[in-house]
Design a protein that fits this description.
- This protein is about 65% helix and about 10% strand.
- It is elongated, with a radius of gyration of 45 Å.
- Helix 1 crosses helix 11.
- Strand 3 and strand 4 form a beta hairpin.
- The chain is an alpha+beta fold.
Length: about 450
């Protein structure tokens, strides 16, 4: 039973091509003007590991980092919220590096104040490099707007040097006097950290070299090229070459749309972005191959069916499956987008755009391009066939004298046979009578014998 064609995809194919080209051109223009916003994985930077005194969430860390305007990758929470890592940018220019170092120092102070409990009776400054003078402490309190007796030094402990030649360091314990509000305690702690130093440092600091980012970028491009070549070979073997070309063009459409989306909205391109592109490739080509398989099946069932009817019928037979698959996938992605952490939200957003682009290309582009290529191929074959046949007939009808005479004889023979006979004379009649008499005598003798 043939599926009723409710909409002609082939007839409107250029509309779908135009829509795809508009979006692709917009993305490519943004790539040329705004470029991509490469993250720390590609540009290099610092990785800060920090331990907290209270459990924290990603939103808590992002809230503390927001005022400092430091470019960074999504924060990763570990150890049940008592440890997190932040990948930040880095600067090769000395002046920018110094200014950025001050930002990082202020950020670490904020981390210490926000993510460690402040005990007003026993506030500690760790790993001081020298003893605090009373005048220095008074200046710090005055700048912060606190009275001179707001803080009292309770204890000072010398820290043994780790290696020979290390600077003497001290752990100092202070008591806050009359500072009861949490906000005032945080403000005072920030002033002491900033003016006297000795805040709790991050557990570990690593650096990502820009060379690693270049290598990662090259590996990502290599992975995409290998994926495209493997798909081209597979589809060519499984179906035909033009099917493979159409499928790869659809994949390039999905890739350009996704990359263009990242460029337009300046989303950060990190190592997860490579996973997004490869995942979209797999999703899109899977849906496309199912449509191709149905086209091949319909061609085998009804060889008299025209190619445009085959494409339209196959698309309508697989339409429900394609749409349902895309919608169910998008539901899961949207759930991650709404409920997931910051580190997974960018991945989910890229997947959302890529899956939509893959569904569009599978339904509206791939099959129509197969029709376009196959039609062009058949027209090219039909145009070359008469030309070849004509050249052969010219060689066969070479001017040969015998053939020309036979042809003229055949043409004139019917005309001669159809011409009226001339009237016979009397002498001719008598001659014919004599011949008949002789023949009759011969036949009579033969009968008697």
């Amino acid at each position: 039973m043939q599926t009723r064609i409710r909409f002609d995809f082939i007839k409107t194919r250029y509309v779908w091509f135009a829509i795809a080209l508009i979006f692709m051109a917009t993305g490519l223009a943004s790539l040329g003007i705004r470029k991509l916003n490469y993250g720390i994985d590609f540009t290099g930077g610092r990785i800060l590991w920090f331990q907290t005194g209270v459990p924290v969430k990603t939103a808590d860390v992002e809230k503390v980092m927001a005022p400092f305007d430091i470019k960074h990758n999504p924060v990763q929470i570990m150890a049940g919220g008592y440890e997190f890592t932040v990948k930040t940018e880095e600067f090769a220019d000395p002046q920018k590096a110094i200014a950025f170092g001050e930002k990082i120092r202020s950020l670490l102070i904020a981390f210490n104040v926000e993510f460690h409990e402040i005990d007003p009776a026993s506030f500690k400054l760790l790993r001081m490099q020298d003893q605090i003078k009373a005048s220095k402490l008074k200046d710090v309190l005055k700048k912060a707007g606190f009275p001179e007796d707001a803080v009292t030094l309770v204890d000072m402990e010398e820290v043994p040097p780790v290696e020979e030649g290390d600077v003497l360091r001290y752990n100092m314990t202070f008591r806050f006097n009359g500072i009861d509000k949490k906000e005032d305690q945080k403000k005072l702690a920030t002033a002491l950290y900033d003016g006297l130093g000795g805040f709790r440092q991050f557990t570990r600091e690593d650096k990502v070299d820009p060379v690693f980012g270049i290598e990662l970028r090259n590996n990502a491009a290599t992975a995409l090229i290998i994926a495209i070549v493997c798909m081209l070979i597979y589809i060519s073997i499984r179906f035909e070459f033009w099917y493979a070309v159409a499928g790869i063009i659809a994949l390039l459409h999905d890739c350009i749309i996704t990359i263009g989306f990242y460029s337009i909205f300046q989303l950060e391109v990190n190592s997860a972005f490579v996973a997004i592109i490869l995942t979209v490739f797999g999703y899109s080509i899977n849906d496309t191959i199912i449509i191709f398989d149905r086209m091949r099946e319909n061609i085998r069932k009804n060889k008299k069916m025209s190619l445009d009817a085959v494409v339209n019928t196959s698309l309508w037979e697989t339409m429900a499956r394609s749409i349902n698959t895309m919608l169910t996938t998008q539901m899961a992605i949207v759930a991650i987008l709404l409920l997931g952490g910051q580190s997974i939200k960018d991945f989910a957003l890229g997947m959302c755009v890529g899956v939509f682009a893959g569904g569009y290309s599978s339904i509206f582009l791939a099959a129509s391009m197969v029709y376009l290529f196959k039609t062009f191929e058949s027209k090219k074959g039909a145009a070359s066939a008469p030309q070849t046949a004509g050249s052969k007939s010219k060689k066969a009808s070479a001017p040969a004298p015998v053939q020309e005479r036979e042809t003229r004889r055949e043409k004139t023979a019917p005309a001669a046979s159809s011409a009226p006979r001339a009237p016979q004379t009397a002498s001719q009649d008598s001659t014919e009578d004599d011949k008949k008499k002789k023949d009759n005598k011969k036949h009579g003798k033969q009968r008697r014998r």
